[in-house]
Amino acid sequence: RPGRLWLPSLGMCTVEPLPGGWLLTVEEEAPPDAPSRVVLDLSRPRRWSVTVSGAAGSWAQELTPRHAELLYVLALHREGRSAAELAADVFGDPTRTGTVRAEMSRVRRHLAGVLAHRPYRFSEEVEVAVVRPEHPADLLPHSTAPAVAAGRVRG
Fold it and tell me: Are 90 and 69 in contact (CB under 8 A)?
């Protein structure tokens, strides 16, 4: 139906009917009903998810292990991370920026309006919460990412 609609891959859009279809216009500025809260749930083994909510409603998405690692690092570093910093955090190798950029491009497709870049980070307007497992050692248990390993020790 016509009006405003939140689409995870595009962000807030205005929807208008056209003969034989619909016109979607992506809103440039963050409107007052843009996503305002992100919950990164890492508490269950191999069932990691992100839930995005705001005035327009909420939605959740399961995460791949790599995307869970990247979002965890960004939640720890709200000021943002460069591609080299993320590569060091996830791979232990700051030269793997191409891999990080490709993965962040995939993540941002699903989290438009929630993630920003240059540096990579959660949008400033978004509250971010991380739900950790009960035992710190259970944090992304199969991950070899240096930032995740440090999180297991810190708890």
Answer: yes
Residue 99 — very low, low, confident or very high, per pLDDT cuts 50/70/90? very high
- Tell me which residue has tokens 């749930």: 41
Among residues 36, 41, 45, 34, the alpha carbon closest in space to that of 60 is found at: 41
Per-residue b or e along 116-141, where b marks 16 or more CB atoms closer than 10 Å to that residue's CB: beeebbbbeebebebebbeeeeebbe
Is residue 41 a contact partner of residue 131, using CB atoms and an 8 Å limit?
yes
**Residue-number span of the structural domain to which 61 is assigned:** 33-154
The CATH number assigned to the domain holding 86 equals: 1.10.10
pTM, two decimals, is: 0.79
Q: Cβ distance 59 to 51 under 8 Å?
A: yes
Is the residue at 74 inside a domain? yes
**How much of the chain, in percent, has pLDDT values that exceed 90?**
63
What are 127's two structure tokens?
Answer: 């509250």
Q: Are 148 and 69 in contact (CB under 8 A)?
A: yes
Distance from C-alpha of 13 to C-alpha of 27, rounded to nearest angstrom? 6
